[in-house]
Amino acid sequence: MRRVVLGPVVPVLTVLLLTSLPVTAIVAAFASRWLPGRWRPLRLLWFLLVFLVVESLTLIGLFGLWLFTGCGRRVRWPRWQEAHYTLMCWYLRSLIRSAERRFHVRVDADLDDARLPSAGERVVAAAAKGEGYIGPDPEPDAAAGPDADRPPLIVLSRHAGPGDSFLLVHALLELRYRPRIVLRGALRWAPAIDVALHRVPSCFLESGAAPGTGTRAITAMASQLGPRDALVIFPEGRNFTPERRLHSITRLDELGDHPAAEDARELRHVLAPRPGGTLAALDVAPDADVVFVAHTGLEDLSGIVDLWRGLPMDTAVEVKVWRVPAAEVPRARAAREAWLAWWWRRIDAWLVERHGEQAVPDAVVEAVSDARPEPDTDVGRGDAGPARRE
After folding, report:
1. Secondary structure of 100-168 in the HEC alphabet?
2. Number of folded domains in the chain?
3. Is the pTM of this model over 0.90?
4. Residue 132 lies in a domain
C-alpha cells in the first residue's frame, strides 16, 4: 500500500513543481530577501526540484528493470544486481553533486591507508592485462571480471550528521563495491530507496524492534559476502550528539558496567561502540578486510533547525579511511572487542586533532562528572555488561 500510494505521488509532484516553477521561484526569491542566510529558500527549492526529478527518473528506471527481470523473477541474477547498483550509483551521485553545488559542501577524503583502487587505477590495470573495458557481467553466472579477486569489506564508520550514510554508500558504489546496509525503517518512505534496497541485500530496521534484530540481519548479510561486497555497519548505532554521549555513559553506569562507562567518558567525539553486530559479522566473514571510516564537518547539523541555520554550509567534509587486511584482524572474541574499542579511540583521537577536547560543551562535561557514581568494587565488567551493550 505504501508503494502504491507514494510511487505515483512523486512523479505527480515533480510535474506540478515543474509547471509552477516560475511562480514558486519568484516567491522563493522574494522570501530570500527577508529571511536570514544567502538565498536559502531558492537553494532549497532548487534541491527539492532536483530531488523530485531524480527520484522520478529512478522510479521509472526501477520499473523498467522490473520488467526486464521478468517481473522480478530474475532480479537476483548477478547482471541485474549490477544494473540496480549502477542505477543506485547514479541516483546518489546526482543528489550529492546537487547538494555540493547548492549548499557549498566539499568532501576531502584521505584514502592513503585504505588502499582502495580508484576507477582510473582499475581501468589502467585492466588495460595492462589486455582485459579492456570493465563492464557488467555478460551472463547471469559470469564472474565479476578483473574485480573478482577483490576481497569483501566490512566497513565500520562513525555516525554523525545528516547524510553520512549516503556519502559512504555512494563512495563504495563509485569504487564498484556492492554495499549492504542496515537502515532505519523510516527510509522506506523514500520510494526509490524503498524499492531499490528491497531488491539488493539490505535490511530496514523498524524503531522498537526486538533486541538482537539488527545483529541477526547483519549476520545474515555478512554470511553471504563475496568479492566486491561491502557490509556497512555503524557500531555506535545512532548519530553522535553530546546529549547522546551523556545518555550512553549514564546508561552504562545504570547497567553496572562501570569500566565501560569510564571508557566512554574518554571518548570526546564518538559514542561507545556496540560490539554485537560487528563481532557477529567478523565471525561469519573471516576473509573480509575491515575498513574504518572517520569523518567530520556534519556533526553540528543534528536537526532540522540546525540544517536551516547552516545553509549554505560553506564547509568541507573531511574523511579519513583506514583498511585492515583480514589476516590482521584478531580471532578471539575478547581480543576483537578490545581491538574495536582501540580503533574507536583512534577515530576519536583523529577528531580531537581537528576539534580539540573542548569541542564537547562544558555543560555536558560537567553533567557527566556530576552523574559519575561512586566506585563499586563488587561490580565489574563481567558477562552482563557486554551482553547488554550488544
Report:
1. HHHHCEEEEEEEEECCCCCHHHHHHHHHHCCCCCCCCCCCCCCCCHHHCCCCCEEEEECCCCCCHHHHH
2. 1
3. no
4. yes
